[in-house]
Design goal:
The protein has 153 residues and is α+β, with helices and mostly antiparallel strands. Helix content is 33%, strand content 25%. The protein is built from one helix and eight strands; from the N terminus they run αββββββββ.
């Protein structure tokens, strides 16, 4: 007799299914890595922008600029502290599946001092935030030192 038995066909189908599922997981990892890196670089750009605004006195501002962090977004604001009702706030939402974890800044806010651009109320142990992809666990940690210099790990 020629051909395959039913058992052989089932085994081959199972092996092919296993290979396809492994390949799909391998293809998802680079996408997750790219998403986390993009979110981290966007955040770094906004942090630098807020620092630059306070150092240059953007729009004749009378106070500091800062960023307030929530689990799935961050809000750019002006003032000594975040006021949710301020209509000048600008919210930036993270992509779905992305979250901030380990937000160590006091009150989950990063605020820059007028003119100097230094971080207000700076503490060495309270200067990081981590961006994580919930599905894969891929993450990057952003650290800001006293002078506003940023590193990404």
């Amino acid at each position: 007799m020629r051909g395959f038995t039913l058992i052989e066909a089932i085994i081959v189908t199972a092996l092919l299914s296993l290979l396809v599922s492994m390949a799909s997981f391998a293809l998802l990892q680079p996408q997750a890595t790219a998403s986390v890196e993009a979110a981290a670089f966007t955040l770094v750009s906004d942090i630098k922008s807020q620092q630059l605004r306070v150092m240059t006195g953007d729009g004749g501002s009378q106070g500091p600029f800062g960023i307030h962090f929530a689990q799935d977004r961050y809000i750019l604001f002006q003032g000594q502290q975040f006021q949710a009702s301020d209509q000048n706030n600008f919210a930036v939402a993270l992509d779905s599946g992305m979250r901030f974890i380990n937000i160590t800044w006091p009150n989950e806010e990063l605020i820059f001092a007028k003119r100097s651009g230094e971080v207000l109320n700076f503490t060495d142990s309270q200067n990081t935030i981590t961006v994580v992809h919930i599905g894969t666990g891929e993450q990057q940690t952003i650290t800001v030192n006293r002078f506003g210099a940023i590193s990404i790990n």
